[in-house]
Design brief:
- Keywords: Transferase.
- This is phosphoenolpyruvate--glycerone phosphotransferase.
- Pfam families: EIIA-man (PF03610).
- By secondary structure, this protein is an alpha/beta fold.
- It has a single domain, classed as Phosphotransferase system, mannose-type IIA component (Rossmann fold, 3-Layer(aba) Sandwich), CATH 3.40.50.510.
- The protein contains 5 helices and 4 strands.
- A 4-stranded parallel β-sheet has the order 2-1-3-4, with helices on both faces.
- Helix 1 (about 10-25) packs parallel to helix 4 (about 90-105), helix 2 crosses helix 3 and helix 4 packs antiparallel against helix 5.
Length: about 120
């Protein structure tokens, strides 16, 4: 089983910037993004999220997002995906970075989730 990361942001440049950051520490991890609407405006797109799921080569995905409506679209896309997807309500940059670094180091999902727990947004 392989683990990958999906980042969803309302702003295309934020999603792209986070991917750039993550690839610096996790070059071997499949990281895909969905930023902005279908027209690259501020918002999210279920189509882009589904594409990020499909294009990610990992078997199991850890998904991170920035704002509430992104969570709603992620949940809808998860229902349409055959992959196992874990959705985290955590600080976006810090948690995506932590997850990618730990996946790169070969850490198992249980330990990754333990490391993400303090980053949970209440």
């Amino acid at each position: 089983m392989s683990l990958g990361v999906v980042v969803v942001s309302h702003v295309p440049d934020i999603a792209a910037g986070i991917k750039t950051l993550l690839t610096q520490i996790a070059a071997d991890v499949s990281i895909t993004i969905a930023g902005g609407t279908d027209d690259d405006e501020v918002g999210t797109s279920i189509n882009k999220i589904q594409r990020a799921f499909t294009e990610n080569t990992a078997d199991e995905l850890l998904a991170f997002y920035d704002l509430g409506s992104a969570k709603m679209n992620l949940e809808m896309a998860m229902d349409l995906s055959d992959k196992t997807i874990h959705l985290y309500n955590t600080a976006l940059i810090e948690s995506a970075y932590t997850a990618a670094a730990l996946i790169q180091a070969g850490t198992d999902l249980a330990e990754i989730e333990a490391q993400l727990a303090p980053l949970k947004i209440k």
